[in-house]
Please model this.
Amino acid sequence: MNKKRMRLKGLIKKESLQIIRDPSSIGIAFLLPVVLLLIFGYGVSLDAEHVPIGIVIEKPGHLAMDFTGGFYNSEYFSPTVFSNIQEAEKALMKRRIMAICWIRSDFERRVLSTKDSPVGIIVNGVDANQAKIVTGYITGVWIKWLSQYARSKGLRLDAPVNVEQRIWFNAAVRSRNFLVPGLIAVIMTLIGGMLTSMVVAREWERGTMEALLVTPVRIKEVILGKIIPYFVLGMGGMAISVVIAIFIFHVPFRGSFLALTYASALFMLTAIFLGLLISTAAGSQFVAGQIAIVITFLPAFMLSGFVFDINSMPFPIQVITHIVAARYFVSILQSLFLVGNVWKIYIINCIWLMVMALLFFRIIRKKSHKRLA
Amino acid sequence: MASNLPDIPSKDDNAIAAKGVWKVFHVGKRKVEALRDCSFDVKPGIVTGLIGPDGAGKTTFMRLCVGLLIPDEGSLSVLGLDPERDYLKIQSEIRYMPQRFGLYEDLTVQENLDLYSDLLGVPEEMRKERYDVLMSMTGLGPFTRRLAGRLSGGMKQKLGLACTLIKPPRLLILDEPTVGVDPVSRRELWHIVYSQVEREGMSVLLSTSYLDEAERCQEVILMHQGEVLGQGLPHEFSSKVKGHSFMLRVPGGEKRRLQQELSNRNQVADSLILGERIRLVMWDALKPKEVKDTLGLSDKIEVESVPPRFEDAFIWRLKKRLMEKGESVRFKIITHKRVKGKRDEPVIVVKDLKRRFGDFYAVGGISFEVKRGEIFGLLGANGAGKTTTFRMLCGLLPASEGTLLVAGKNLRKARAKARVRIGYMAQKFSLYEDLTVLQNLRFFSSAYGLYGKRQRERIDWALDAFELIGEVDTVSKNLPLGYKQRLALAAALMHEPEIIFLDEPTSGVDPLARRQFWAHINSLSESNVTIMVTTHFMEEAEYCDRIVIMKRGKILAHGTPEELKERYHPEGIKNPTMEDAFIALVESKGEVANE
Model:
């Protein structure tokens, strides 16, 4: 074995032993993905299901009953009936219900006579996102009932456009299906960025780096000795996440595994390089951890399009998302999971990742040397 | 690559040659000249000591030699190579052990050795043999599977040394390898270094802030505040002050007052309390009779001429240098409110005190008494249980078992009441590093309940007594170590306590600052303040009235320094030092030192 390989082997062995002995790295690499996936897979959902809704029917009648039946049949609502609006408003204030559908006493008469009967809808707008979704659902129920009613009377509904919904890629409209793939990017950012940045800072803090630098080791070997073990660790976390996504959460996977592996490897390297870069700037583990959270984890969470749609962000923020590596990986993941191999999306995003990885690597090479300060 | 046999440098080639080397750092607004125009050669095939207190520039110089830093000016050559350009070549020929070992604490002894073998390119087939030699030499053989972090301080240093010796280098550079290590391990470390020099013919550059270690080197380079004070054989330094050193035997309890008075006399270069005696270094070589006459000492005092120590020479040279520059070398004496109460009545009573952490007894049943106005020392290597004992005495840590009376208060019940009467100076000077000197004093005084006029008076007193006036607005993390130490002592004295606890108060400060510090302590003791101090500096034990020596949570011995030296007098040594006595004591108890 030549000396170069012997040195690299020694460094990798050392790093691996340290990973195995340090409960926090095992925690971040293996436990954290599982916990995050469980939280996002089961706990957090952006869908409105079984929304408590109050229905006020001032004067029960055939038509009113027919209309409100739509709410009972929908899985999106769990309705409660009130006999007057005051009671319903009280329930809304107390947050027992999310929205009120108010059917006045003249509902039936006006439908039959003027064919124009308003329905009052009051939605708690504190959570704007939820409010919009709920309003949409209620409107949906209303339109559905109208068209059914019209058909039963042999009339044509005077609607200018008839909405015939068909949802692509995520037919069941489960938010889990796009959250979980995005989450994989966040998890890998954590392993790559946080762990790597902290372990290099740890070597400075404990004074081991000084001793290491004064051995015949080359700086390239020191960098590789850090990259390789954490790359393996990160890919392990990745594999676990994919298995959980597919087999526990039943997220469909429609692309090729080879493409997934390649893109993950590329993203993993970008994350690790960024971690190494942080570690050269931070003097202590504590500072490295803080910086890593602010410049890797939080952007991956908020600006990658994993939860919040990039296209609906203000323009300046959209521009900023371009320097968040996770953004490209989230696109790749969501398309591979939900759509399949869309080579155009895949290649463009991979190129972006590659550019970032190379850029980070150049800076690292330039910044690291066998000197103090 | 180089062959496996190291080239033995010819005797004419210097291992290191430095000419006019400068290195400047910027700390905050302060410009620190770490090395000022340093020129010297390190000879091959011998052990050269780089001797000087913290801040002398020793570490900076070593880092320059191994290519970790680049000099601002001057030329440096290591094994005939330029560290700035040929650092890779140098790094394959030399080994360097930084101050903090460079060991991976979460790897075992064996794994650390394997890592360094890999890094140094030692072929697999040669390892076993080399490991066996190193493990038997360091006595680490039975511990190869233990995590490095679980080793004692002395064992860690030995492992660090073993890692650097896996492939015998041409030049070995060791930065303070003996700091914080117990005397027995220290002796073993020196033994290992010398055996390597003899067997492998390597050159060694070693730094230390323990002046007594200078005498173990074959050549010494004396440094202070970035300057080279001199270079030569250790005994050459000492012999220059031959006839300057004296020992005074003072009857009765007058030694402190006398020492205080003598320390500021014009004829005296240095004075120190050593047990019951005072060690004196005069500016000129004199006869004992002449000393008595020039100083006007009473007839009751016996004066005896003694052979000079290295430290005598160091202080003599250093003060001379400072005086030439026109700086004051006088010691300031502080005033403190006289504490009421009879001298010699016990103020700290400890009986069967224990402290348990899980299954482990950090302190396992100790008893002693401290009298008012006494300077009482708690001695032992790192991990002996000194700091734990201290924290219990200050009421910072509850005791698991035993009696604990401080200033007449039962600390296990009335902690707050006792705390008002004690001052505490924690290890590494617990200051608020981001506050200025004045802000620190304001904070500490108000924490002790001082306000208004009284607070202003005390702050003025502290600034004057500890000579901090010039640095009032300096942020304390930018202060030199000696100033930090004074500020920390001032902070602990703001409320005029009766008892003061000092945890490793002088570690790392230079010998002059240490003397000034002890001058303060002596004057406190004169005002009836009781002082309790921990130290791992064996010599400092001699400044105390009484000491206890701790090891692994137990008291090994206690008494006055004089008694202990008498009791554990090693054979064949005429005037044993505290360190000799400590080693003899540990060995007589049949303890394995490195466990």
Q: What stands out?
A: Chain A touches chain B through 29 residues (CB under 8 Å).
